[in-house]
Amino acid sequence: MPIFDIAETRPRINIFKPGGAYYFKHFFDDLELFRELEPYYEKQRYRFRMATAGERNKIMKRLDKKGYDPNLIEDPAPFTVEISRHQKYGELLKNSVENYPLRDKIVFVMKDLAWVEQAVAIGAVARGRDP
């Protein structure tokens, strides 16, 4: 009888630390889990914020128990893109963890590498990659 090695893939959630807090962005279908995490949710920026490493560790353990793969990103450079302020960037805004203006551009830290690729496809420049 053949043996099948089926590896279950767990949804990855990248957690970043731009500045003094930890952030991640994810849409949860699990309403119960969202309600547990709601005290950390920043509604205006559509992201979750943990002020301390202790809070981050607590949330990472909770996500792991619920079947997610929380991943702490120490260096956000590979997730960073920039785009002209004059281009359409609404989709980037929705899928970034952080953004800030820089001269005539807007810099985004995207929530995952797939969104970095999407950003490049619509005209953004990846900042953290080797040319």
Helix content: 25-40%
Any idea what the CATH architecture of the largest domain is?
3-Layer(aba) Sandwich
What is the SS-derived class? alpha+beta
Radius of gyration: 16 Å
Helix tally equals 4
Mean pLDDT: 92
CATH topology name of the largest domain: MutS, DNA mismatch repair protein, domain I
Binned strand content: 25-35%
Strand tally is 9
What's the CATH class label of the largest domain? Alpha Beta
3D architecture notes:
This protein folds into 2 domains: 12-73, MutS, DNA mismatch repair protein, domain I (3-Layer(aba) Sandwich); 77-126. It has a 4-stranded antiparallel beta sheet with strand order 7-8-6-9. A 3-stranded antiparallel beta sheet has the order 2-4-3. Strands 1-5 form a two-stranded parallel sheet. The chain starts with 11 loop residues before the first strand and ends in a 5-residue tail after the last strand. Helices cover 26% and strands 30% of the residues. The protein has 131 residues and is α+β, with helices and mostly antiparallel strands. It has helices at 31-37, 53-65, 90-94, 113-121, and strands at residues 12-16, 22-24, 41-42, 47-50, 69-73, 80-84, 96-102, 105-110, 125-126. The model has no long low-confidence stretch (mean pLDDT 92). The relative contact order is 0.18. The protein is globular and about 45 Å long. It has 4 helices and 9 strands. Strand 3 and strand 4 form a beta hairpin.
